[in-house]
Amino acid sequence: MIFLKLILTNLRRHRIRSFISIAGIAFSVAAMLTVVTILQGAIGMFSNILSSDSEIVLFERNVSDLFFSNVPASVAGEVAKLPTVAHADPVLFGIVSSADHPIITCFGVTPQDARIRKATWLAGDRVDFGKSNGDVVLGSRAADFLNAAVGSRVPIGHGTFHVIGILKTANGFEDGGVFMPLAAAQNFFHKDGSSVITVKLRNKDDAAAFKAQIRQAYPSLIALEDTEFSHSYSQFKILKATAWAVGGCGLILGGLGVANTMIMSVFTRIREIAILRVNGFSNVQIAAMILGESSCVASFGAVVGLTVGIVALFTLKHVPALDGYVDASMKPLLMLVVVLLALLTGIAGALYPAAYAMRIRAVEALRFE
Amino acid sequence: MIGIATDPTRTGCLVLRAEGVWKSYDDGAIAVLRGVNFEAAQGETIALCGPSGCGKSTLLHLFGGLDTPDGGRIVVNGVEINRHRNLLKLLRHEVGFVFQLHNLIPDLTLGENCLIPTVAAGTNRILAMQRLHHLAGRTGLTHRLNHKIQKLSGGERQRTAICRALMNRPKILLADEPTGSLDENTSETVFQLLLDIAANEGVTLLMATHDRGLAYRCDRFLEMHDGRIYEPRPV
What we know:
The complex is a heterodimer.
Chain A: H1 2-13, H2 15-50, E1 56-60, H3 73-80, E2 85-96, E3 104-109, H4 114-118, E4 120-124, E5 135-139, H5 140-145, E6 153-156, E7 159-168, H6 172-175, E8 178-181, H7 182-188, E9 196-201, H8 207-217, E10 221-225, H9 226-232, H10 234-268, H11 270-278, H12 283-317, H13 332-349, H14 351-359, H15 362-365
Parallel strand pairs in A: 3-8, 5-7
Antiparallel strand pairs in A: 1-9, 1-10, 2-3, 2-9, 4-7, 5-8, 6-7
Chain B: E1 14-25, E2 30-41, E3 45-49, H1 56-63, E4 71-76, E5 79-80, H2 87-94, E6 95-98, H3 110-121, H4 125-139, H5 154-166, E7 172-176, H6 184-201, E8 204-208, H7 212-215, E9 220-225, E10 228-230
Parallel strand pairs in B: 3-8, 3-9, 6-7, 7-8
Antiparallel strand pairs in B: 1-2, 1-4, 4-5, 9-10
Helix pairs in contact in B: 3-4, 3-5, 4-5, 5-6
């Protein structure tokens, strides 16, 4: 108890300094948690686009971005005829812009595509999709920011399109996107094929055989199961690395704050540490006291940071402009990793101060005023 | 007389012995101790007088293992203090320190300050509390155990420091001008307490002091100057 009190006493003694250190760790934890969760959510959403009623993605081998992938138009039909395949849907991804919105995701799909079949149609009729290449269907958020309703004509990119339907999906990219008939999209983006083909198998156990079949029949294409795709797609890797790097930088800054605080803490307690030494405290006990203090700072910071992060994500999720783009569901493993990183940062920040405290000589320190 | 030996007929076994102890600072430019010889027996009370800077505190620090001599030997309870010796054991169980300034931790209560040596030594909590209450009773501090240090008088603080020094039942109590910052009456109270505790607990008391009136009341009175210890002839 007294040992714990010695640790907590110093935190109470310099409340402002302790508060600033805790805030530093808290904001680092909140930043890491928020950035990683948002980006993982975004990755999850993009993965969900591809895995909508399918389990395999087929695209051009060795492309860095699916927007640059071009799967020949004939492949979708050939793949669909394979006995193991339930259905194969070509999807063409593109980015277009309108007057006030520089980035609008565009999906070129067939009327049979799961996105069209399974979405909630707020206006318009599904059977009309694909009848005319000048027709588009908007996600509900896209309809909002384009001020469009069924029957409107909306300028998108270098063309103007007739809105025949508005649909609602849980996915932010889809809900803020434009759905064109595949042929219209091919014409719009000057492509003769599609970006990917999403494939649903009759039996999931045939996945390995199907991939081997594709490898043999189409050497320039690659087929990946959804989970494989999420783990191997270079854009996702870059996004994940960026998220952890940004969060890591935040934690390093927090750790430097802890180091600064702990150094000051040791300097202002030199006499006290000397007293403890004279009374038989060992180097290990002195170091444990300093590391205990920094662990307390890091623990408080982690708890506050988790709370701030959760509140921030909840708030972002409910900002109308971000509706559907932020997936605020936090994974327990991520929370655990972030808390452990915060604790490690706190302890790392106190290593030098602890080593300094261990070197304090009682005889000299007792003369210290 | 250079080299002070205790009178074996007057006291028990030796608990502290220094043989030709040298200590200097600034790479030898300031020689503080120049071959000090000294012996103390169990239960003896010894006063060490001398002008400021003569090396009294340095000698106490060496005896307590807080500093190391440049030359000579120091033996505590039959074991030489050197770099191979477990100095922590020495500090925890064999010597207790009382300084001129009480050196208590202000944010802790009187009782908590006294318990610090037991925390360091990992003493059983129940035994530590029993010892605390015993010493608090002896020093008249029982009613103050839960009080913060700021609320104690100078005498109470120094009595607390004495309690703390005795918590782990050391065999030697090293007191560096323990009454130096107290008024006359309080000095008398604290000094008498030190003598009583030394007598009752069988502790060897080595006290550096400027107060010759108090010093003459110890079993032995030693003078220190020019880096050596002298025992004045009785008047």
